[in-house]
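Following up on my earlier message about glutamic acid. Here are the inputs again, as you asked, copied directly from the submission form:
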Amino acid sequence: MANTRNVRVRFAPSPTGPLHIGGVRTALYNYLFARQNGGTMILRIEDTDSNRFVPGAEDYINEALAWLGIGIDEGVREGGDFGPYKQSERRDIYRRYVKQLLDSGRAYYAFDTPEELEAKRKEVPNFQYDASTRLSMRNSLSLGLDEARKLIDAGEKYVVRFLVEPNRDVTVHDLIRGDVVINSKIIDDKVLYKSADDLPTYHLANIVDDHLMEVSHVIRGEEWLPSAPLHVLLYEAFGWTDTMPAFVHLPLLLKPDGKGKLSKRDGDRLGFPVFPLEWHDPKSGDVSSGYREAGYLPEAVVNFLALLGWNPGDDREILSIDELIQLFSFEHCSRAGAKFDFEKGKWFNHQYLLAKPDEELAELFKPILAAHGVEVARFSDEYIARAVGLVKSRISFVGDLWEQAGFFFVAPTEYSPKDIRKRWKEDTPAIMTQLIDVVNGLEDMTSKAAEDVVLKWISDNGYHLGNVMNAFRLTVVGECRGPHMFDITELMGKEETIARIKRGIENIKCEE
Ligand code: GLU
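Thanks, got it. Here's what our run produced:
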């Protein structure tokens, strides 16, 4: 039976646009399950819908999975013994299996034109192409096989439809949902193949490939659950029931602020990406934001997505990929949809940034510094790393580093008017001039030592602590925020600190 076979799973996206974040989660769960079981992860490109094919989408899928570290064992790029891994290259195979169903009477030819179908839908309320209607349609069952062959020989376009017998209870064994039973009367005679482009539809190609590729578990989004009974019937029609894969339908990703499926519009509306990488639509030229470009770390995205619909059984949240591989289980997947809490996504990113060594963050910061015109070579690696270390508790994204730590690299040229009004009094320039002497006299610039001396000077002179320290900060940072003042001056050093106080005295004009 399926469960004692080698674990072979597949991620089977259609290259119809950028991979949605829900698709990424499906890929991730397949990957975790494969790795946990020493199994094989297949990437199959389901490009049988030629009308919806979008150039660049396949490369995008590969790039996104690579960025996230979701490794593929068999696929178009990786090769493997079960190829080709792109459905448009498997036409010969599908033709064979379509013929098998036709020969065994499990499928039939149909010639109804789109116009005829449309007219029928208008005429018959809730029309469904099935046992109750098929004999009133134009197909090899109503016309007879000889007549059908004649039409085909005369060049008429046709489709092949699956013959669904009504009133049978079909059971889908789902490892999250248990047995899902539906009656076959609600299934229509699905189109399996179209002669117009000599391509199978999703249903046929999917079943044939899962069988031939010896897939053990079909792990996919909940939106495919309604198709699963049809798939079970197809396995049966082919005589493959014994090796039918186990089904796993993952819970939907829901809108952050309510019910319903997460959509691209939610991302636009609330300001978060729904795609792993930035996507440039080749037709419209529209650009959609991506997690990578928004400054997310791939390991944070993986951790965040893993917990959307699964939990480790306790309240642990920060889990490395190795831990996820070890802990993942279908038993702890939820049936209910998972709310897409993008604020939580930010939180994960923050946690992963905090856990990263300062040196590594410094390397990520360098290109950002350069983009802001900083001559990075003027600063030692140690300086950059220490600056990053002082602000990293305040950032959610690497990109926030500029806002938080830019002043370590560029002295302020403008000063916050609001802070000037509040902290720069008439006597401030004179006090700051004294401060220059105090700083100049410091023998030890380390944070605590400098702080002791400066605070003593403030209290000996009876100055207002808050005003003096904030005016000091204003000259060095440009505004009244940032890390501990004496941590800043320790890193900047005496000379730079004094230069900034001087420049502040010259340029900050008291408004009173
Ligand atoms: N090609 C389908 C998709 O785009 C695959 C669904 C499945 O995994 O069966 O999601």
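One observation from looking it over: The pocket of glutamic acid is lined by residues 12-14, 46, 202, 206, 220, 224 (CB under 6 Å). Hope that helps, and feel free to reply on this thread.
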